[in-house]
Amino acid sequence: MYYIGIDLGGTNIAAGLVDDSGKIICDKSIPTGAERNYTEIVKDMAELSKEIIVKSGVSIEDVKAVGIGSPGSIDNKNGICTYSNNINMENANISGEFKKYLDLPVNLENDANAAAYGEYTINGNDVESFVFVTLGTGVGGGVVLDGEIYRGFNGVGAEIGHTVVDMDGEQCTCGRKGCWEAYASVTALIRQTKKAMAENPDSKMHEIAEKEGKVSGRTAFDAAKCGDKAAETVVNKYFEYVAEGITNMVNIFQPNKIIIGGSISKEGDYLLKPIREYVEKNDYNRHMEKVQIEIATLFGDAGIIGAALAAKRKICG
Amino acid sequence: MYYIGIDLGGTNIAAGLVDDSGKIICDKSIPTGAERNYTEIVKDMAELSKEIIVKSGVSIEDVKAVGIGSPGSIDNKNGICTYSNNINMENANISGEFKKYLDLPVNLENDANAAAYGEYTINGNDVESFVFVTLGTGVGGGVVLDGEIYRGFNGVGAEIGHTVVDMDGEQCTCGRKGCWEAYASVTALIRQTKKAMAENPDSKMHEIAEKEGKVSGRTAFDAAKCGDKAAETVVNKYFEYVAEGITNMVNIFQPNKIIIGGSISKEGDYLLKPIREYVEKNDYNRHMEKVQIEIATLFGDAGIIGAALAAKRKICG
Description:
Distance between the termini of chain A: 13 Å
Oligomer: homodimer
C-alpha cells in the first residue's frame, strides 16, 4: 500500500508517495506562496498529491491515506491548524479543505513531530522511547513513546528547543531569555561565529565567509577543521551548548535513542563524538544502560516519510 | 481490597495499609538505620508491614500487594535497586528479600515516581499526562502518562531537577553546574537566604532565623510576609527560579496538570499565584488550552499512597 506524505514549509511544499517501508517512490516540491489564504495552499497540496500519484503509476486505490506535516499548533484530532505565524493560519481546517479536492483520509501533524516520527520509523524502530532533535534555523524536535507521537494534552508539547538553559541569557524568538534554541540553533551559531570574527580579524573564518558570500552555520566548522583557533573556540562552545540541552533531554526522558537531525547534523561524527562524550560525563544516570545518541539519516525527507507513516499508523492501524 | 505502601527514606521507613480509594487505614514509621546492610532494612520493612496489617484488623487475605518506593536507580521489572547513595545499595534485590518474610507480590518504584503516582491518583486522576514536581531538599518529580509511571528505558528517567537552567551556574550535587535543583530546592533557597542576610544585616530574616535557631526554607518567606524588602527580593527571585523550570516542563510535556509538592508547596497560593502568572506569560503555548498548575495535597503521605496504588495497578491490573 501507499501513502502521501506532505511537508508544508514556509518556502516550499514537498510531497511524496511513500510505500509501507517508508521508501519515497515519487516526489515533487512546489513553492508554498505562504502569503496566500490557506485554502489556496491546501488546494495546491491536493493537486500536487494527485500529480504525484499519476506520475508514480500507482493506482489511486492503493493510496490509503494522506499525512500532512504543518508548522504551528495542531489539533490532530480535528485536522486543524489552530495557529501558525510561519504561514498565516488561524483555525485553518486543513484536513477538511484537503478532502474537497482529494477524497482520502487525512492525518495532520505538527511538522517537527512528523519529522520525528519519520526518523523514529527508519532509525529508531521498535524502541519504547525516542527523542528527535533538529538543529536548524531553530531547535525543534519530537518525542515518540511506545510508537506514538507525544503531543501533550493540547497538541503543542515537545517544544524542546524552548527550554531555558541559561536564565536571563540570549533573547529567544519565543519571548523568553536563554532558551536552548538561542544557543544551539544555526541562527545562534551564526551569531556566535560573527561575534568571534569581530573579535578575531585574522581568523580564517573571514576568508571562508568571503568565499561563500556570507557567514553560515558552516563557517566556523570549516575554519576549525583548518586549525583556526578562534573557530575551534566557537565550535567547542557550540558543542557544549548542544550537549547541555541533549543531557537535559537524557535526564528527563532516558529514551532508548536520541537522534540529532537538522542541517548541523551533516557534520556527522565531528559533531557526534564531543556530544556523546559530554553526555556520558554529565548525565544523571551512572549505573544503568546508557541512552544511544545517533545522527539522523533522512534529513529533508524525514518530514515527507514521517507524515506519510504517521497517517498510515493513525488511519490504517 | 488493601495494599501495603512503604516509603523507604534515608531517615525513616514509613509504611501504611491503603485501601482501593487511596485512603491510609493504618500506618507507622520506624527509623531506617541506613548504615546497615540492605537485607536488614528490608527485613524491618516486612516486619513493619505485618505489624500494620495486624494492627489494622484487616485479614491478610485481603492484602493483595506490597508497593515500595525506594531512593536510587530502580529496575522495576526485577524489583532491584541497582544503586542508591542515600542508602548504601548496589544491585539490592529488595523485592526478593522482602518476599522471604512476607509472601505477597511486591512492586518496587523509585521514591519520587511513587510519590508522583500517589499525587496523580488522588489529584490528577484520569488525565492523560501529569507532571509532579517536589521542591524539597532536592528538586525531584515524576511523570505519569496514560496512567503509567514514565521511567525511561533504563528506569531512571524523569530526573527533572537535573536539567540545567543556568549554564556554568551554581554547582549541583549531580556534578553539573546550573541544574534547576541548585536554584529551586529548599537547600538552594537556604543558600539564597543566607546570602541576602549577609548583605542585609538589618533584615527581619536575622530575627526570624534566631528565633527558629537556624536559617530554614521558611525564613525568607516569613520575613517577606512581614514586609521585609530584602526577604521579598529573595522570595521573588526564588519564585522565578521555580517558575523557569516549571515553564520548561510545560513546554516539553504540555501535561494536563502539573502538581507542585514538597515542603515549600505548603506556602500554597502565596507560591502558586506568581508561578502561574510567570508560566502564563512565558510558556510557548499561546493559542491552545493551558496546563493546570496546582499545589499537592498529600505531602508526606504521597509516597505511601503512591507506592501502594502503583503496586495495585501493576499487580492487580
